[in-house]
Design brief:
Layout lengths: L2 E3 L3 H17 L15 E5 L5 E2 L12 E5 L4 E10 L5 E12 L5 E3 L12 E2 L5 E4 L4 E9 L7 E2 L2 E7 L2 E11 L7 E9 L6 E8 L8 E8 L2 E10 L9 E7 L7 E11 L3 E11 L2 H32 L30
Parallel strand pairs: 4-13
Antiparallel strand pairs: 1-10, 2-5, 3-5, 5-10, 6-7, 6-9, 6-12, 8-10, 11-13, 12-13, 14-15, 15-18, 16-17, 16-19, 19-20
């Protein structure tokens, strides 16, 4: 059953004081980051850690649930729901399988499509919770790991829903046994030119644990090495068996060269993979203008040649004679009668 906590009188007095201060200062301004469709309640892990039914562990503040156990284990944890409004909210709770979208984001599957770790999560009779105004409810739940579960990470989430609005809390669940960190880099391609050039690639998790990959970019051209990108952490957590399509900005792309680009991705646990692609970089706009200029120059030269030839044709009559005049061009001079020609007479 959920545990409800009423606010302390001191907190209520503080709220009254803040309200009076706001009225004195003038009309309130909208809070940055707030949206009109906020549900009016929050969901987060209660202070503590996942524990087997047999014992307890120290409590601490957590951004997500982390649970670990062997196949056949039943784990317990608690979800905290806080109503921040002046009316009661009714929230429905469920477990869901987690996966990566094509762009690498973390997402959860619908209830009917969750057949993995999401289906192992149960709230029992506490799946529907009524939260009074300005009250915090702590709801227990269990994760029953099937005996035949393979080792490794089984990503899931706890999803709280009300009137179509959902809030998800990640569950990192690891089943004990051998782990393998492995990945591949596929479908490497270069897109764009100049400062807008990017390297597109597909990253596939071939192991059984979630990966936090790092990427480096190296390029070799016909004229030597081309500036690439140093190693940096990618803003994605690659879940087991998932495939994501990513792009890496490449501001150091050359203007004119044929380049072979190599993408190297590593991750903790010894995972390493490399993919490559070749691409031509040609300043097509400049080449186009140069081609048009040469074409125009050739056309101008050809036109000039035709013009000169036509002008000569109009000015010079056939035979080269001027009408009305006797040709002064001398005729052939006959050889003397006894001129030696080298032949016998």
């Amino acid at each position: 059953m959920p545990v409800l906590h009423a606010p302390h009188r001191l907190k209520r007095a503080g709220l009254i004081l803040l309200a009076a201060t706001a009225l004195y200062a003038g009309p309130a301004q909208p809070a940055y980051g707030a949206t009109a469709d906020e549900p009016g309640w929050t969901a987060e892990p209660a202070a503590g850690q996942a524990v087997p039914r047999t014992g307890a562990r120290p409590y601490s503040t957590r951004p997500y649930f982390y649970m670990a156990g062997t196949a056949g284990t039943v784990l317990e944890d608690h979800l905290a729901l806080a109503n921040t409004t002046d009316r009661e909210h009714t929230v429905t709770l469920r477990g869901a399988d987690a996966y990566n979208t094509a762009g690498g984001a973390f997402a959860v599957r619908p209830a009917a499509a969750s057949t993995g770790a999401g289906a192992w999560i149960s709230f029992g009779a506490g799946a529907t919770v009524k939260i009074p105004p300005h009250t915090r409810a702590v709801v227990p739940f269990t994760v029953t790991v099937p005996p035949s579960s393979p080792p490794g990470d089984h990503p899931a989430a706890v999803v709280a829903t009300e009137a179509g609005r959902e809030v998800g809390v990640r569950v990192h669940l690891r089943v004990g046994g051998p782990t393998l960190a492995a990945l591949t880099v596929e479908d490497v391609a270069v897109r764009g030119r100049g400062a807008a050039a990017v390297v597109a690639y597909t990253l596939v998790n071939r192991g059984n644990v979630a990966l936090a990959p790092e990427l480096s970019l190296r390029a070799e051209g016909r004229f030597g090495e081309v500036p690439g990108r140093g190693a940096r952490a990618l803003p994605v957590e690659l879940l087991p068996g998932q495939r994501v399509e990513l792009t890496e900005p490449w501001p150091g792309a050359p203007v004119l060269d044929r380049v072979r680009v190599s993408v190297t991705v590593t991750a903790p646990g010894g995972a390493r993979a490399e993919g490559s692609a070749s691409a031509w970089f040609v300043p097509w706009r400049a080449a186009g203008w140069t081609g048009l200029g040469l074409l125009g120059l050739g056309g101008t030269t050809l036109a000039a040649l035709f013009l000169v030839r036509g002008r000569r044709t109009r000015q010079d009559p056939p035979g080269g004679e001027v009408p009305g005049e006797t040709s002064a061009r001398p005729g052939p001079t006959p050889a003397p009668e006894h001129e030696l020609t080298g032949a016998s007479r």
